[in-house]
Specification:
It is a single chain. This protein has one domain. By secondary structure, the protein is mostly helical.
Length: 96
């Protein structure tokens, strides 16, 4: 089996970030029950961690491990699914 390519992993992270934002909008608009939204958020967070772990088999393994640590910190501290989402949320918080 071939190791994953970094570009494919980055595209997967962007897709998870977009799905996370859609999930937030749907939950705030009342289209998703609270329990379903929470389950989907955890599923996206676990998928993001899986992608970061898959990055161990790329030449950029140090960067992917840093990404994993940032992902876990963002999820625990502010509930962001990915670091991209965390930066977006912090930007909204500080710059309106």
């Amino acid at each position: 089996m071939r190791p994953p390519r970094t570009l494919h992993l980055i595209l997967a992270v962007v897709a998870i970030s977009l799905l996370g934002e859609v999930l937030v909008v749907l939950r705030l608009a009342g289209y998703l029950p609270f329990g379903t939204g929470i389950i989907l958020a955890y599923l996206l967070a676990l998928s993001n961690c899986g992608i970061a772990i898959a990055g161990w088999w790329t030449p950029n393994r140090v960067a992917w491990m840093i990404y994993l640590v940032l992902s876990l910190a963002g999820f625990v501290l502010i509930g962001a699914v990915t670091p991209i989402t965390a930066v977006w949320l912090l930007g909204l918080l500080f710059f309106g």
